[in-house]
Amino acid sequence: MKKILVLGTGAQGSTVAQRMDEEPNVSQIICADADHKAVDELVKILKKASGAYVDADDIDSIIKAAEGVDLIVNALPIRFAPKVLEAAIAVKANYQDFAATDVLDSWWPKCVEMMYEDYGRRFKEIGKTAIIGTGSAPGMMCVAAKRSMTYLDTCDDILMMVYEGVEAKRFLPFWWSPFTALSDMTDPTFALKDGELVETEPHSLPVTRHFKGCQGPVTLVEHAHDETVYMGLNKDTHFKGAKNINFKYGGVGIDFSTPLYRAGLLSREEETYKGHTFIPFDVIVSHLPPAPKYHDEIKEILDEGLVKDEGAFVVEAVGMKDGKRVLVETYLYAPGCVESFERAGITGEMYLTGQCGSLFTKMFVNDEYTQKGLISSDMLTDEECGKYLDYAAQLDITLETEVKTL
């Protein structure tokens, strides 16, 4: 029986806690956050949970909450990751994170390398497993990309695309934290180009696709995401020598933020206008509605009706198979926003990210990881990928792959 600390009680952490509350191999869940209301609201709907109030800037506070746990699920902002990693090592616990931290070095790929090497060695020394990038993207996206490699002998190009086309009648550009969303819209983006990791410009290099089940063409652009860095570093060991890897994002959030980015309104630098000093990014964020989080909030938006409830989650991998050049096209299918609410009382964003994250946790509590040290979700073995996808299918989250000769 496993004891889990879920650190962070937002959309991701709360979904993991709720899913683990149903797992027979889980005996106790500690739900921890600095937000007392969020902790209390979550604990009262769970059977196996207790609450803790934690200051994530204080390692000792984390260690105190984590004493005796088998696994720490870190659902906090990525700047806290080094402290949570140190706490996990101190209490000799396994570790799960939804992304990779960017505070260890100014060059993000170097941060990930440091995590692989330093924390990988230290977790291996205590016989524990740490996995980073365990939501939907990164997470399920990495599993889908890794799975597509089974159809190739060698790989040239990998293009990962996420289109989020859920549009409310009210002004709601983001279904998750507006601060996080707009931060992602301005952060440096990375791609593997001719075998080398390089920075690309956010909102650049557009591609257009006609996705199954979606109305009309969709334009997607470069976007800051972990996958390209993980997979770029692991191109030879896990992705059959891939030379070019990109992540593209499109939908309502991009349509809203791209003009702001191009106008300089997402800048973090102080500006002065007519005698007033301000930071454009902060002004924009302060005017955005928060993402719906609670049942009644979501219900109110859905009762008003949605303009669109569509999306796409696709991997295109091009390479050689049996002497022929082929395209491996993989679609992910999952419940939309309305169906997610009917099933679980949450949004489609919360359902996919949280449920996909919870499946990585489920594999921890069922002792299904064979690797020790620190890995990212693209480094799962073929057997681990298969087990993960079996669990996902039980939640109606499935992959469909088609191989086309070029």
UniProtKB/TrEMBL annotation:
SUPFAM superfamilies assigned: NAD(P)-binding Rossmann-fold domains
UniProt cross-references to InterPro entries, sorted A to Z: NAD(P)-bd_dom_sf (IPR036291), Sacchrp_dh_NADP-bd (IPR005097)
Pfam families from the UniProt entry: Sacchrp_dh_NADP (PF03435)
Superkingdom of origin organism: Bacteria
Saccharopine dehydrogenase NADP binding domain boundaries: 4-131
Transmembrane regions: none
PANTHER family membership: CARBOXYNORSPERMIDINE SYNTHASE
Name of the protein in its database record: Saccharopine dehydrogenase NADP-binding domain-containing protein
Organism: Hominibacterium faecale
